[in-house]
Amino acid sequence: MFPEQKQGYTYEEYKVTADWLRAKTEHRPLIAIICGSGLGGLAEILKDQKVFSYSDIPNFPQSTVQGHAGQLVFGTLNGKSCVCMQGRFHLYEGFPIWQVTFPIRVFQLLGVQTAIVTNAAGGLNEDYNVGDMMLIKDHLNLPGFAGNSPLVGPNDERFGPRFPCMSDAYDRDLRKLAQTVARELGFSDFLKEGVYSVVGGPSFETIAECHMLKRLGADAVGMSTVHEVIVARHCGMRVFGLSLITNKAVMDYDSKSKANHEEVLQTGRERASQLKRMISSFVERLERNNNVC
Ligand SMILES: O=P(O)(O)O[C@H]1O[C@H](CO)[C@@H](O)[C@H]1O
Predict the structure, then answer these.
(1) CA 257 to CA 65: how far, in whole Å?
(2) The dihedral of CA 33, 37, 39, 43: what is its sign?
(3) Is the ipTM reported for this complex over the cut 0.95?
(4) d(CA 205, CA 213)
(5) Is 247 marked active-site?
(6) Over the stretch 131-179, which tens digit does the pLDDT of each residue have?
(7) Which of 62, 247, 254, 279 is the most exposed place for a label (fewest CB within 10 A)?
């Protein structure tokens, strides 16, 4: 007989982590910011920081990918209490999907109402350039089509319903707010809005796969975000998703370009200051319950 394999976290395990964090910091965040690959510098905009290494937090998985520091940073941004994940978890690291999304339910128990989810992504849309920011308006969940959803298993009604709606996953008013903020900052020229497609990774896509994703309606491709968004929406958070187009997906058999993680990190470094200004102004303008522009 094999020992029974763990299938997910219990409500009590999420609560142990949330209670531990609550006891260690006076911050009571309403906003969570998840940093994509190479975008961990976003946490630097938080004031009055209290930083926890993932290795010190009960039940927390450990980051293994370059460009993901593995720290939870609490602090304030323009007077608003935030928590920032400097490092997220991916399926390709070998984590089961319920571990990838573990922090989201912890944030919900801490009182977070809005999740700002960022990522590095490859551009499939030929109008996109390296360095563009893409507001995520929708997603294609390829692992989900194959049954790999973070909501598989018994549903805990304390978090949310069995069959959550995803047609409004990326809050329309928050996207409008981001457009306004980008206009004011002079960023409109490199702001796009589109559909993000998640794949399993860690290999980058083949040329045929890129063509398939584009035909399915994707504008950008990455290996994260969607699982977190599904869990955030399930437990009632509002979601704002932002991709940095770090590379152009290779669509042409004659091309000499090759997707690589170093280019992804380099584009993140080059756009770091604009991303910080964008998120900072966005949070400043975020209202507690509503942002009808
Ligand atoms: O989605 P984030 O974490 O930003 O990272 C993206 O960048 C890495 C590939 O370079 C992959 O992990 C992909 O998902």
Answers:
(1) 23
(2) positive
(3) yes
(4) 10
(5) yes
(6) 999 999 999 999 999 999 999 999 999 999 999 999 999 999 999 999 9
(7) 254
Contact between residue 22 and residue 268 where contact means Cβ atoms under 8 Å apart: no
Domain covering 25-285 assigned CATH 3.40.50.1910 in the classification: no
Give the pLDDT of residue 6. Answer: 83
> Measured in angstroms, how far is the CA atom of residue 149 from the centroid of ligand 1?
19
- Distance from C-alpha of 60 to C-alpha of 262, rounded to nearest angstrom: 27
Q: What one-letter code names the amino acid at 20?
A: W
Instruction: Give per-residue pLDDT as tens, 44-64.
Output: 999 999 999 999 999 999 988
Q: Which residues contact 186 (CB under 8 A, 6 or more apart)?
A: none
Query: How far apart, in whole angstroms, are the C-alpha atoms of residue 65 and residue 88?
Result: 9
Q: How many CB atoms lie within 10 A of CB 44?
A: 13
Q: Which residues contact 261 (CB under 8 A, 6 or more apart)?
A: 37, 66, 67
Amino acid at 86: Q
Ligand 1, atom nearest to 244 Cα: 4
Q: Take residue 192 and report the two structure tokens written for it.
A: 């796009």
The burial class, CB within 10 Å (0-12 / 13-18 / 19+), for 72 is buried
Atom of ligand 1 nearest to the CA of 90: 12
Pull the structure tokens for residue 267.
């584009």
The alpha carbon of 222 and the centre of ligand 1 are apart by a number of angstroms equal to 6
Beta strands 191-198 and 80-86, pairing class: unpaired
The rounded Å distance from CA 201 to ligand 1 centre is 9
Using only C-alpha atoms, what is the Rg of the chain?
18
Contact 122 CB / ligand 1 (< 6 Å): no
Instruction: Please report which confidence band the pLDDT of residue 1 belongs to, taking 50, 70 and 90 as the band edges.
Output: very low
d(CA 71, CA 117) in angstroms, rounded, equals 16
Ligand 1, residue 222: give the atom nearest the CA: 14
